[in-house]
Write a structure and sequence with these properties.
Order of helices and strands: EHEHEHEHEHEHEHHEEEEEEEHH
Structural class: alpha/beta
Low-confidence stretches: none
Radius of gyration: 20 Å
Distance between the termini: 36 Å
Number of strands: 14
Largest sheet: 8 strands, mixed
Strand order of the largest sheet: 8-9-10-7-11-12-13-14
Strand content: 25-35%
Mean pLDDT: 98
Helix content: 25-40%
Oligomer: single chain
Number of helices: 10
Length: about 325
């Protein structure tokens, strides 16, 4: 499977580093596309790529590319996904999948029409640690799950993609999306109520979020994210018999089981990884080999569901991106 990266920013570099070190016999990083040929060529030299394109259209038109990883700003995901799908390319689209649910539905409909795989690159959904957490919950070791807490924060207000509304910036689509996904993966129930508050930048985007979800089964999730500062990135899944503590919900470093007396019962070993980005690409390969067009770790319905929840929060917070 020949993979190309669309966009040459920081997250694209992480993916390039991942795939060049992965050494998977069926996965090859083959090309980079940027709006600047000079930037693309520098990227290609750094990672030993044979192809560098100075436009996204040229990248999409390469007949030897099987899968395109879209690493452009949130605001451009739908347009770039549309371009690649029209050129017959399977897609791995960086989270947030699009800037709103309407765009997500449009892209998924086009993928179905073209019979192409599209999946959201929210890496925490594909990691082995996710399966470990699921298995512990399903085993009944913590009893019935009744609440979740999760937080994520990094000092990233200096980044344009965060501060600019025309890039669909803010903490919600970049950071809060992770605690939301963490909660939805732990609590399998419909959403009864969604509320939250935020602190905005002068540009109008959210930088500090508190979100609460009440589920139809009576469970509750409390989530916090900030672009102002680092947080401990902890996630907790509380049950009637004990709880799970997940260190770093963005890329789990430890998964620990505690009983009702707060005693450590078990620490679950996590496999060695390249960076954690590799699992979503490997699942794309396995899904395509199986003849499917939807990755099991991140079903299309879940992508749309998360986008709808974030749309509801932005409406509550009176945040509208240009062009909406």
């Amino acid at each position: 499977m020949n993979v190309a990266i669309l966009g040459a920013g920081a997250i694209a570099r992480t993916m390039a580093d991942t795939l060049t070190r992965l050494q998977h016999p069926e996965i090859k990083l083959a090309a980079i596309g940027s709006r600047s040929l000079e930037k693309a060529e520098a990227f290609a030299r750094e990672y030993g790529l044979s192809k560098a394109y100075g436009s996204y259209a040229a990248l999409a038109a390469d007949p030897e590319i099987d899968l395109v990883y879209i690493a452009s700003p949130h605001s451009e995901h739908a347009a770039h996904a549309r371009l690649c799908l029209e050129s017959g390319k399977h897609l791995l689209v960086e989270k947030a999948f699009t800037k709103n649910a309407a765009e997500a539905l449009e892209i998924l409909a086009l993928a179905k029409e073209k019979d192409l795989l599209v999946t959201e690159a929210i890496w925490t959904r594909y990691m082995p640690s996710r399966r470990i957490i699921d298995e512990v919950i399903e085993s009944g070791a913590i009893g019935e799950v009744h609440s979740v807490q999760a937080n994520l924060g990094y000092p990233i207000t200096h980044k344009e993609r965060i501060m600019r509304p025309e890039l669909a910036g803010g903490a919600l689509l970049d950071l809060t999306v992770y605690p939301i996904n963490f909660a939805l993966m732990a609590i399998h129930s419909g959403v009864k109520d969604l509320t939250g508050t935020c602190v905005k930048a002068d540009t109008g985007v959210d930088l500090l979020d508190n979100v609460a979800i009440t589920f139809e089964n009576g469970a509750l999730a409390s989530m916090h994210a900030t672009a102002y500062s680092p947080t401990d990135r902890m996630g907790y899944i509380y049950g009637t018999k004990g709880y799970l503590a997940v260190t770093n919900i963005n890329n789990p470093e430890k998964v620990e089981l505690f009983d009702k007396e707060h005693r450590l019962v078990q620490r679950f070993p996590l496999p060695q990884q390249v960076t954690g980005y590799e699992y979503q690409v490997i699942e794309c390969l396995e899904t395509l080999k199986a003849g499917r067009r939807e990755c099991p770790s991140m079903p299309h319905a879940e992508t749309v569901h998360v986008m709808e929840l974030m749309d509801r929060l932005r409406k509550l917070w009176e945040i509208k991106f240009p062009g909406e």
